[in-house]
Amino acid sequence: MEHGSASLTSLVIVVIAAFLTPIILHRFRLKAIPVVVAEIIVGLIIGQSGFDLVNEGMWLETLSTLGFIFLMFLSGLEIDFSAFAGKKKKETLPGGGEAPNTLVVASSMFLFILVLSLGLSYLFVLAGFIDNVFLMTLIISTISLGVVVPTLKDAQMLRSNIGQIVLLVTVIADLSTMILLAVFVSIYGGEDSSSMWLLLILFGAGVAIYFIGKYFQNRSFVETMSKGTIQIDTRAVFTIILILVGISETVGAENILGAFLAGVVVALLSPNQEMVKRLDSFGYGFLIPIFFVMVGVGINIPKLFQDPKILLLMPLLFIALVIAKMIPALILRKWYSWKEVFATGSILTAKLSLVIAAATIGEKMGLISTRMEGALILVSVVSCLVAPVIFKKLYSHGEETEHVQQVAFIGSNRMTLPVVRELDPKLYETHLYHTKVDKIDDKVSRSCFEINEVEEYDAKLLEELGVFNVDLLVASIGDEQLNAEIALYAKEQGVERVIARAESPELDQKLRENGVEVFSVFLSSKALLKALIIAPNVVDILTNQESYLYQIEMNNEDYDGMYIRNFPFTGDVIMVRIFRDNESIIPHGDTELKIGDQLVVTGSSEYVEELRFDLEFCE
Q1: CA dist 437 to 162, 290, 481, Å?
Q2: How far apart are CA 25 and CA 34, in angstroms?
Q3: How many Å apart are CA 376 and CA 359, to the nearest integer?
Q4: Looking at residue 192, what DSSP letter applies?
């Protein structure tokens, strides 16, 4: 009974530590430290390396294992497989040249990283630090997706060409390391491990679950049961996790491989974003913090320092991590500056979750000692502390120039031409396309616009003319079927935003399901008339040039985390709404501004432009 009470007390201590960690980070503005790294540091303080307040028992062991499984699931869920399509529009670099193909460059960099990691691992084996080349190669080559993605988001790099390269290298490294880790367990697992071919059963189960999920995904009864107290979609996700984790352990692989595969399967099914947010909330709000705190609790730093061999290994391993990532990053020097190259190499050095996985498995299989496991995890923690700080120092917002969005209009008529005329040329570069056989709308003078004539509205022909190398495409010709055909083809070619005119409900639904934004003359007129009756002042805001709604992106780090009540701007501007990821926020005094926020404001144009300059184009 006393043992159970001590175990429960330790759980309370760990949960309180996990709860206070992000509050402390926020209070002292320690933005450079990832939360997961801070949780490990807190674990060090309350664990064996510090006050030794925690006794590992059944509660903590179970919840920590579940946290690790859920972390691997969310790592698989984070992978965006559209990045492998290679159909993104070509970006023009500041120097005027064409940006490289992200998939080709990222694949080349990862292969270089893998070869270098193998060579460096042999050096560690020859020096007598470790006996297994395979395990050390996995540890050196892996990259932390959980650190890279937030860092790229903070720097507004995620959508840039170099940001996509960094992201793709990380995704390939994550996928490859997980697969190689499964192969590693099968080869070195000893008598208890099944033959490697049994892994095919696991992957076969993953494929079968994907097709079953695809079949039932859009059924009306599933959508109905996903609401209220049933939440069938969330139940399905946990069922997938447990099935694949169970199969993974049965065939002799580690449970984390099944969890990671479950995340990949769910990601391929393109889940509802609301459900993803619920899963993130559950994982990062409860289970995962317990796991990371317990990682810190289990490391005994004083004992590590008693072993001269381990003490020498740690700095040498950190140097190896830097070499394995910085040298392959030199491939980017052909297109980017030295600062950007070194920034890329530094952020790729960050590693955490998969190193912990590999080290834990290596210790469990008797291939490395407990001290060696602690040393590997400690070095990975240091890499996550150092890499984002160096990256932010090297990558400067001040070097960015104002981005003018490229917009293509297919069809020049009384609907598109007035819109083109009113778009701010400082923010939008417009391109109009019209067929030679169609007459331009007589109501608008052709001399006012530069219109590109095409033989016909054929998607292949438009692609040859480079029409799809834009940020936004608007398909607004008289034939809604042709609009749909062009819009869907544009999405396939990687155009980020596509807007199409469609009047029929069936076509409207099909386009929306494929990520196309839809507008309808009939529905727009009906909505406007209803708004004029119910809320005429709202319509006035939208149509009166003196009270337009404007959208501004918050990029200035000086205001990141600042409460609106403390915001120093005193111009004639009112914040109406804040869009953050998929969340819509009504701003008030206690609302914090965050990097990447989309602010919807209203006010006089001169003050709006001043605010735009302060928030978007900071030095």
Answers
A1: 42, 67, 19
A2: 9
A3: 7
A4: G
Instruction: Kindly tell me the sign of the dihedral angle through the C-alpha atoms of 436, 442, 446, 448.
Output: negative
Helix (H) or strand (E) segment spanning residue 320: helix 308-329
Strand partners, 518: 500
The C-alpha atoms of residue 358 and residue 259 are separated, in whole angstroms, by 15
Arithmetic mean of pLDDT, 229-237 = 81
Tokens of 543: 């149509």
Among candidate residues 163, 178, 39, 35, the one with its CA nearest the CA of residue 105: 163
Per residue in 577-591, pLDDT tens? 888 876 778 887 778
Between the two ends of the chain, the Cα-to-Cα distance in Å is 62
Tell me: the pLDDT tens digits for 172-212? 887 788 788 877 877 776 544 445 666 788 888 889 998 89
Sign of the four-CA dihedral 16, 22, 25, 28: negative
Within 10 angstroms of residue 498's Cβ, the number of other Cβ atoms is 25
CA–CA distance, 485 with 477 (Å, rounded to integer): 12
Under 8 Å between Cβ of 350 and 384 = yes
Q: Are 615 and 599 in contact (CB under 8 A)?
A: yes
The CA-CA-CA angle for residues 332, 338, 339, to 5°, reads: 110
Closest CA to 182 of 195, 172, 171: 195
Is the Cβ–Cβ distance between 532 and 539 less than 8 Å? yes
Q: Is 302 exposed, middle or buried (0-12, 13-18, 19+ CB in 10 A)?
A: exposed
Task: Could you list the beta-strand ranges (E) of 177-335.
Answer: none
* Closest C-alpha to 494, from 97, 99, 75: 99
Q: Tokens in use for 324?
A: 């394995």
Indicate if the alpha-carbon torsion angle 444, 446, 450, 455 is positive or negative.
Answer: positive
Q: How far is CA 215 from CA 212, 311, 507, in A?
A: 5, 55, 21
Q: What is the pLDDT of residues 43-82, one digit of tens each?
A: 999 998 888 889 888 888 889 889 888 888 887 787 766 6
User: Which residues 6+ apart lie within 8 Å of 235 measured at CB?
Assistant: none
Assess contact for 276 and 263: CB atoms under 8 A. no
Put residue 22 in one of left, alpha, beta given phi > 0 → left and psi -120 to 50 → alpha.
alpha
Distance CA 291, CA 368 (A): 21
The tokens describing 84, both together, are: 């492998």
SS3 429: strand
Say how far apart CA 178 and CA 256 lie, in whole Å: 9
Nearest CA-CA partner of 337 in 557, 95, 142, 573? 95
**Chain mean position to CA 299:** 30
